[in-house]
Amino acid sequence: MTSYDPFGKEPQQRPDAEDTETIGGFSSHDPAKPTRRGGPVVVAALLAGVLGGVGGAAGYAAIDGAGTGGDTASQSAGGGSSAGDVSTAESLDNQSANTRTALSGSVQDVAASVLPSVVKIDVRTSQGAGSGSGIILSSDGQILTNNHVVEAAANGELTVAFNDGSTAPAKVVGTDPLTDLAVIQADGVSGLAPATLGSSDDLVVGQQVVAIGSPFGLESTVTSGIVSALDRPVAAGDSQGGAGSVFPAIQTDAAINPGNSGGALVTSDGKVVGINSAIRTDSSSMASTGGSIGLGFAIPIDEARPVVAQLSQGEAATHARIGVSVSDAVDDNGVVNGAGVQDVTAGSAGEEAGLERGDIIVKVDDDLISGSDDLVATIRSHRP
User: Fold this and answer.
1) Residues 266 and 308 in one domain
2) Entry pTM
3) Single residue among 315, 345, 361 that ends a domain in this structure
4) pLDDT tens-place string over residues 245-302
5) Does 143 lie in the same domain as 180?
6) Using alpha carbons only, what angle is made at residue 64 by residues 61 and 67, rounded to the nearest 5 degrees?
7) Annotated catalytic residue: which of 117, 131, 133, 261?
8) Residue 254 resides in a domain
9) Residue 1: inside a domain, yes or no?
């Protein structure tokens, strides 16, 4: 067990954790692999992609070549072809052409609606370059993304690439490492298409969702899947400033890869319900750059709203806190059964509530607590 202060202190590594990979928005070297452990808590890798021309080009070529095929012909029951069969094939082709207008709620319809509201974000410094994604909040260029996408921009430059091919320089308006959120402002733009924000509280497991972003620098990429789980406590690693990001995530099997960070997770009615932020990686079978294994995680939009409202005004984000340091509580069988209190800050809400060192927190309101990261995510989901 390792002590972890959920309210600002840097978490220490848990020695027997599964391997994870941090792939932030900016890197000039192979990133370290922090380790964590916590029962059902998912350890995740940040998703802003480090640009890698060879890997990106190879992946694109493989996809491009996989879908080619020759002409097909219809065949009659007798084994031959006929003019009637050809006519039928032509009729089907015409029907296909006529139905290319997207059906409402289809992935095609969602893509057409939301793609203009999602951008690619490039970060360049004297030490290297990286990229991520963002969601347009206002017609004059305010954009929501992840903190780990833009945190290196303090010593570099930000450029936003829009769906129509245009670009604009940008600057950081505000960041919050604790929720891994940031707001940036694109300069000299107007008439943009803001995304429509939905409600993540209304999501149900099994619901269809679409992920839009720029994995591996491939902007305007669309993938689809379902909501696999809700309120999954995800520890997405530490930012460069040392503050860990733990949040109650939307889990999805929609393909999410490095570079998708900050992009949109969208329902079939075209409303943004999450900010794609992390993936689970398997170091034993994945390359050093990581990639989708069907376990992607997004910050729920309803968790992000109050933070974004503060950041967009240039204010510091505020968070609920109880003033305790915790670690995973483990029973005699090695099973994590709650969050063990390691220390209580004098004068804090935790002290006022009577918490003491050695207590095990197993429930907050109606939410069961399975471990230390679960407690952190639950507390951060409350507003002060």
Assistant:
1) yes
2) 0.69
3) 315
4) 788 999 999 999 999 999 999 999 999 999 999 998 765 554 445 677 889 999 999 9
5) yes
6) 145
7) 261
8) yes
9) no
CA 327 – CA 343 distance, rounded (Å) = 10
Per-residue pLDDT, 342: 85
User: Other CB atoms closer than 10 Å to residue 204's CB: what's the count?
Assistant: 8
Has 261 been annotated as catalytic?
A: yes
Catalytic option among 27, 117, 131, 148: 148
- Counting the structural domains of the chain, the total is 2
Place of tokens 């939905």: 198
- The CA-CA-CA angle for residues 280, 277, 50, to 5°, reads 85
Q: Is 219 exposed, middle or buried (0-12, 13-18, 19+ CB in 10 A)?
A: buried
Residue 259 shares a structural domain with residue 341: no
Which CATH number goes with the domain that contains 167? 2.40.10.120
Examine the residue annotation and report whether 148 is marked as an active-site residue of this protein: yes
Nearest Cα residue to 267 out of 195, 198, 221, 193:
198
For the cut 80, the answer to whether the pLDDT of residue 5 exceeds it is: no
**Same domain, yes or no, for 332 and 203?**
no
Residue 241's domain spans which residues?
Answer: 11-50+105-315
- State the Cα–Cα distance between residues 214 and 355, nearest whole angstrom: 45
Residue that finishes a domain, picked among 315, 332, 355: 315
CA distances to 22, 41, 373 from 380, rounded to whole Å, are 22, 15, 10
pLDDT of residue 379: 77
For the stretch 130-184, pLDDT in tens is: 999 999 999 999 999 999 999 888 888 999 999 999 999 999 999 999 999 999 9
Determine whether 180 is an active site residue.
yes
User: Is 361 found in the same domain as 303?
Assistant: no
- The amino acid that residue 295 corresponds to is L
pLDDT in tens, 29-52: 333 333 333 334 443 444 444 333
* Mean pLDDT, residues 313-319: 87
Candidate list 122, 176, 180, 373, residue with the active-site label:
180
Asked whether residue 37 falls in the same domain as residue 132, the answer is: yes
